[in-house]
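Please complete every field before forwarding. Incomplete forms are returned to the sender.

SECTION A: IDENTIFIERS
Entry label: holo-400
Bound molecule: pyridoxal-5'-phosphate
Molecule representation: SMILES string

SECTION B: INPUTS
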Amino acid sequence: MLSADDVRAAAQRLHGQVLDTPCLPSRTLSAICGCEVFLKFENHQFTASFKERGAFNKISLLSDEERARGVLAVSAGNHAQGVAYHAQRLGIPATIVMPRFAPSVKVERTRGFGATVVLHGDSFDDARTHGLALAAERGLTLVHPYDDPAVAAGQGTIGLEMLAQQPTIDTLLVAVGGGGLISGVATGARSIRPDIQVIGVQTERFPAVWNAVHGQSRPSAQATIADGIGVKLPGAQLLPLIHERVDDMLLVGEDDIEQAMVMLLEIEKTVVEGAGAVGLAALLKYRERFAGRRVGLILCGGNIEPLVLAEIIQRGMVKSGRLVRLRIDVRDVPGALAEVAARLGQLGANIDEVQHQRAFSSLSVERAQIEVVVQTRGVAHVEQILAAMRADGFQAERIA
Ligand SMILES: Cc1ncc(COP(=O)(O)O)c(C=O)c1O
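SECTION C: PREDICTED COMPLEX
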């Protein structure tokens, strides 16, 4: 079973090999959440996730002969890059097996670290079966993404670092996929502060470890915005550790995750992927439970496609009322559109899109309908805008 000594030994091996990322208090998030919040910026690692820690620790434990033969990992995500990057640094050949549909940017990034990428199968399970066979056939060492004590020990170095950097932390909220990160972190952190609360967070769409801890059997979905923790099969070696060393498991929804991603971007100016935001999502969702505590959150990854991020930002703006669609009925006379635009401008609403329609409107023929998407300062501002437009005689309402 993974011990604190294993995590401490991993920390010595990792010294100077991965970033000792900052762990900083967040004044604004603390005020919002009603507790003291500390953020560990693992999204600053070179490959933008903590996965380098476990990968490096595992690889550095290999014999010369194993190094010469090479390593293999099955992953289309952060683990692939962590293994490929450190294998390249250490001059070890790396083979990464991904499903055929893996996004080309991930394939290219992994190839960029000198790894041989093998695309196989339509599903992750197909890729895994092929990867295991390939490793056995070629004598390559498998670097499992989580179910390996050496990998979990590497991830656990985050727990040691956080408590060295911020010794007052009394609670850790940790994203859980297969369970390697939380097993290691709980082991490391408890060795310094035995009474620390370690709480795992999963998405409602992939609740495998939550199920195991709560004796439930909720089904898994197909996909989640937190793809890094979209895991159906937790580590068999890790579950006993999680039962022993983790205090509780919480679930968050997709909306909670998106909201937390946007807050981290706006407040902390930091980009996290879905899995990197679940800790904050849980803190916001279960606020009362953490009131007054000193909570450490691990921003465990920052790999997200820019277009997906752009969509999440826009949806966040809509949810907070800072991007709204208004429908305004006007008399169908020359200058009506200009009048509406001018009034919106005076009210501080910045127009993003305009649609002016007659034919598709259900209004009488002498009227026209204008739909505008406007940027505002938030819900209260939207109410002010609508009230002012109505006072001016326009029929105005917020839609969708
Ligand atoms: C960003 C991110 N967060 C969390 C996890 C979960 O780690 P584990 O599978 O060790 O629980 C992963 C795993 O890939 C990840 O990429």
